[in-house]
Amino acid sequence: MTDAMPTAMQLRGLTKSFGAKRAVDGLDLAVPSGCLYGLVGPNGAGKTTTLSMATGLLRPDAGTAHVLDRDVWADPVAAKALMGVLPDGVRLFDRLSGRELLTYVGRLRRVPPADIASRSGELLEALGLAGDADTLVADYSAGMTKKIGLACALVHAPRLLVLDEPFEAVDPVSGEGIRAILRRYSRDGGTVVMSSHVMELVESLCDELAVVATGRVLASGPLDAVRGGLTLQQRFLELVGFHAGGEEGLAWLRSSSA
Ligand SMILES: Nc1ncnc2c1ncn2[C@@H]1O[C@H](COP(=O)(O)OP(=O)(O)OP(=O)(O)O)[C@@H](O)[C@H]1O
């Protein structure tokens, strides 16, 4: 990382409401180039909405999003060419096999055909999908679908990867494979922004992070600075507020009352 490198992702005052619900509330974020950046927060914190606005999938009500100095909403073609995105819950063309889907995405991204073939083979192998390369994506499990989505995000060798819950539904062996891919990608100068609920994962993988709740950043920066001597789990609970109790009203769940 050098001072000359542009900030990989810069969000300023991002805001989005759904009806009366303010999902993202003037959110600022600066992700340095070359780092593995985690976005953590409780359910409904606004992580997916933020990443959708940052990647050109959802138009903000206010604020700006830049990736590598390109304005995502003023110059979407240039900005999107620099990014690989694994969105949450977006449908893939699932009547294609894994290999066909990668070929399709590679062609859309103008990757030369010979490179698409070799990169697809390597990605399918690295993600444990080689044996299902010719199976329809519609017949993939949730974890396999996540992995082929990640392969699609990588096939054009983007400079910035934006991943919404990349480890969700993924088994531990594949998870280790994905970590290795992301570490290598970052070592080679790529930047990763990923959301996750798994604190141990963020702690072991990410250099920097932001804790988000109710659409705002509660804390951000290098991992050790955010943790402040605690585990990330402890610091997270401290920041978002842990409400113990509430289980008193569930007495009917006791199996002995059946
Ligand atoms: N399309 C939508 N229409 C209405 N409300 C929405 C929509 N998308 C998100 N929201 C609301 O915006 C808030 C933020 O949602 P978002 O999906 O961004 O949170 P999240 O941090 O990604 O949550 P999770 O960790 O549960 O995936 C929530 O209150 C959610 O109900």
From TrEMBL:
Q: Does the keyword Transmembrane helix apply?
A: no
Q: Which SUPFAM superfamilies match?
A: P-loop containing nucleoside triphosphate hydrolases
The record gives the membrane topology as: Peripheral membrane protein
Q: Could you tell me where this protein is found in the cell?
A: Cell membrane
Enumerate the spans annotated as ABC transporter domain. Answer: 9-239
**Family annotation (SMART domains):** AAA
Report any one BP term from Gene Ontology: response to antibiotic
Gene Ontology CC: plasma membrane
Keywords carried by this UniProt record: Antibiotic resistance, ATP-binding, Nucleotide-binding, Transport
Q: Which PROSITE patterns does the UniProt record give?
A: ABC_TRANSPORTER_2
GO molecular function (one): ATP hydrolysis activity
Main location as per UniProt: membrane
For this entry, the protein name equals ABC-2 type transport system ATP-binding protein
